[in-house]
Amino acid sequence: MKKLVKMLSLMMAVMLFTGMLAACSGKTGGKAGKVDVGIVLPTKDEPRWVQDEQRFKDALKGSDYTTEILFSQGSSAKEKENVETLINKGIKVLIICPQDGDAAAAAVEAAKKEKITVISYDRLITHTDAVDYYVTFDSVAVGAAQGQYLIDHVKGKDMPLYLYAGAASDNNAFLFFQGAWSVLQPKIADGTFKVANSSAAEGLKEKQELSREELSKILGQVTTNWDANDAKNKAQTHLTAASAALKGDVAVLAPNDGTARSIADVFASDGDIKSYVVTGQDAEKASIQYVIDSKQSMTVFKDVRTLVKDAMGMAVTILDGKKPETTGTYDNGKIKVNAKQTNVIVVDKENVKKELIDSDYYKASDFKGL
Asked: HEC profile for 112-176?
């Protein structure tokens, strides 16, 4: 009997020890089966977000905290499902770049009910008080930099100006356009530029500060929906309709690199376009090659490495029970959200090597003709 009791005790001890080992080996950053920081990104179909995925993973290396990254693939319904999945995994902080700023409100409100701190990443979630922080590039400054570049490279008067914008569902598209309009409008009003493709913009050319409704009217005519094919089709439609007076040497406000390349290809293929200056944003590899080849004039470089570090640094500060530092606020239509802003850099042919190669953002071998 004693032997049986000893054997049972030994078996129980072995099982207990084995269970402890399994629990230890199942830990990732200190919590078995738990996720500390949940991250939801818009899509895997754009290089920017795939690069962000790896950067977020790298940012937590050496930390005791864990993270899981999910993609919404352009669907607000999938985005909400992703947030619910992460809530069920016990996250304490949610970092989310919304597919649609308004639609994402329901998802983050569900997180807030569970006392999860919500960080809106890169794009602002609007019309909800469930957003705690916003980590962003200064989006108004991005647009202003694009507009100023066009002004700095214009010659003479009456230069046709083609305006394009991002998706009306993205609050950043409004901020980019607002920034560009703030510097372009005086030059439209004084006749330096003449708007070639938006009757709404032409009708508002005497007004530098536009309301959201007024911005919506312009964006409704010139939106690309952040889609290269939409941008191509819209540019083709505009050039087909344009008179000879609206061709020749032209200026083009393109909102980001993906749309800029499509728009630039359309303008380059029109025999009545003598030259064009076209803006961009994001410093995508394909657009850097376009800049080197003089197919795209500039891009606004937003060093995503810094943005990721800011977002993850904020998350870790929160997990450590401290209050993160912020540098300003953004009105999301419901509340003013405390924000941390990251600076942006204008890159063109003159400084592309200094800003993108010498800073180790890209390798020289990634490009031809540097």
From this structure: HHCCCEEEEECCCCCCCCCCCEEEEECHHHHHHHHHHHHHHCCCCCCEEEEECECCCCCHHHHHH
